[in-house]
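Ticket #349: bound-state structure for 1,3-dihydroxyacetonephosphate.
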Amino acid sequence: MPLVTMRQLLDEAAKGGYGVGAFNVNNMEQIQAIMEAAKETSSPVIIQASRGARQYAQDRYLYHLMLAAAELYPEIPIAMHQDHGNSFETCKSAIELGFTSVMMDGSLKTDGKTPTDFEENVEVTRRVVDFAHERGVTVEGEIGVLGGIEDGHGAGGTGLEHVTDPDQAVEFAERTGVDALAIAIGTSHGAYKFSKKPDGSVLKMDILIEIHKRLPKTHLVMHGSSSVPKDLQEIVNKYGGHLKETWGVPVEEIQLGIRHGVRKINVDTDNRLAITGAIRKVFAESPEKFDPRDYMKPARDAMHKLVAERMTQFGQAGHAGDYVQKSVASMAEGYRDGSLSTQPLVAGR
Ligand code: G3H
Ligand code: 13P
Ligand code: ZN
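RESOLUTION: The complex was predicted; output attached.
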């Protein structure tokens, strides 16, 4: 089966009232871990690569690994998504490579750090939407800016400086025609999101709920959604790591989001922690080992376990076989004939 589009996965998730995890990958083992978790739980999946991942793995390796996944697991709908595209050119190159979905993160300038103004964001996102939809490819946009800067994406700060304004979210969705909308509600990328278990003063679920009320048909996306579980922090630290105490986004808050229009949930850090903990354990307990398979296999298993758990928690488990997978060509037809129009998006219109 060829790769499918994220739009189809999210439309189906909206019908079924569940969320779909979007997991970042950089190498073969991470793709294998996700696909085994998807098979075990019978889940549709979004596999995403950042610009850094495309550089690290090289585009051609990444693309062929994804094709191998589609060939090996024909029963699983798989969307291949560009995470945090920083320019029209990045999104165009992803589409030309064969990605079936792109994020145009026009909330930041091409440096991935400096916030743009609203008009600049609308303009670049609209340009990507026109190019992508003509080819049947899905587009995610972002309005508002995440906090933190630890992994190179974000405007710094606590995450509360650039929380999404619901009025702007409505105007942005209408003027760009994006298929999915990432919003900023106080989360950040990386492990250090919150200094204690987050409450409503730092994790703005009320804003998310308000945006969903105003844009009930728009698929919302939560970035920075790792939960940074205590047990994973402890494993890393027990075997020689130095993580400071920290809190992520509790799974029950994500589940609340899913009840209010969140269809895509981005998770990278939790998998990084699972992999690192497993590798550190082998190194600490069996220092005589030097065959990479001796530590890459436990690392892959740890990520598989975590991803399967998230797939169940987000509700995508059991839904892989619900629908016939559509090609990008048929999605392009849908955008042309208006059946995939994202309008009207606004409540009451
Ligand atoms: O957006 C953040 C993801 O965790 C990807 O991070 O740019 O280090 O690959 P990265
Ligand atoms: P985490 O760092 O919380 O895993 O977020 C990942 C993300 O948002 C990728 O775009
Ligand atoms: Zn992100």
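RESOLUTION NOTES: Residues 6-337 form a domain with the TIM Barrel fold (CATH 3.20.20.70).
TICKET STATUS: resolved
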